[in-house]
Amino acid sequence: MILVYRYRVKSLNGLLNKQSRAVNFVWNFCNDRQKDALRFGRRWHTGFDLNKLTVGSSKELGLHSGTVNAVCEQYAKSRFQKKRPYLRYRGKRNLGWVPLKGRELKREGDAFRFAGNTFRVFKSRELPEGKIKDGTNFSQDSRGNWFLNIVVDVAIDAANARDPVRGVGIDLGLKDFATLSNGEKIEAQRIYRGAEKALAVAQRAGKNDASRPSMRKWRIGEMIFNTNCRIALCENLTTLPSAT
Fold it and tell me: Taking a C-beta distance cutoff of 8 angstroms, is the pair 72, 54 a contact?
């Protein structure tokens, strides 16, 4: 079973900021080469083609070679999925992103080692034993915090899996979060409504002064977007006696 574990990084944030700018450079290089192929009527580049075009650039860019390859492969994959001749350029307005190959990330106690650097994280939960797969990456949120997203393949023993005792029908709604087939109703949390007024005040405060963006606006927005409350709600609901 494929699982994704997310940890907030508490060290080497400056290095990740620098590497994310280099990642944007590689992405834009791939975009330029794709436009050249369109201009001259050549075959569109695949991830393998882009990897060959970027051979030897990792040292100059200050990136791991696996990161450069991961960016090229992700560009080709995204372009194919979106069915577009080319994609948008990445710049300062894009949130930071540093992909890596799963085999390059090593466990080191409560930290992780990648490309000769040890990244300490807030280990909110233990990472299960299993193979770390490609798709693992560092990502940045709107407040500049960095997170390590680890894709791990966990072995599940089918013999120990618990069979469901009984089922229940679920009808999702707006007034109520959900109504179960046994008549039980689950109240909607309305996470956004609780911070709606504070967000409106913060947005108006920074509207007339573009030189001073309101950090409070971003903090409130992150609080609304933060999935911790939603995840906790879903975990509590899925462990209800009536839902098992």
Answer: yes
CA distance 104 to 87: 28
3-state DSSP call for residue 137?
Answer: strand
Supply the pTM of this predicted model: 0.75
Q: Which residues contact 110 (CB under 8 A, 6 or more apart)?
A: 120, 121, 123
List the single range of 43-52, 138-147, 235-244 with lowest mean pLDDT: 235-244
Q: Write the pLDDT tens digit of every residue in 60-111.
A: 999 999 999 999 999 999 999 999 999 999 999 899 999 999 999 999 988 9
SS3 at position 32? helix
| 105 to 24, 125, 148, 192: CA distances (angstroms) | 21, 18, 11, 37
Measured in whole angstroms, the distance separating CA 65 from the mean position of its chain's CA atoms is 21
- What's the distance, CA 125 to chain centroid? 18
CA 160 to chain centre: 31
Q: Compute the distance between CA of residue 50 and CA of residue 65 in angstroms, rounded to an integer.
A: 13
Q: CA-to-CA distance for 228 and 147, rounded, in angstroms?
A: 15
Question: What whole-number distance in Å separates Cα of residue 22 and Cα of residue 135?
Answer: 18
| Number of neighbouring beta carbons within 10 Å of residue 151 | 18
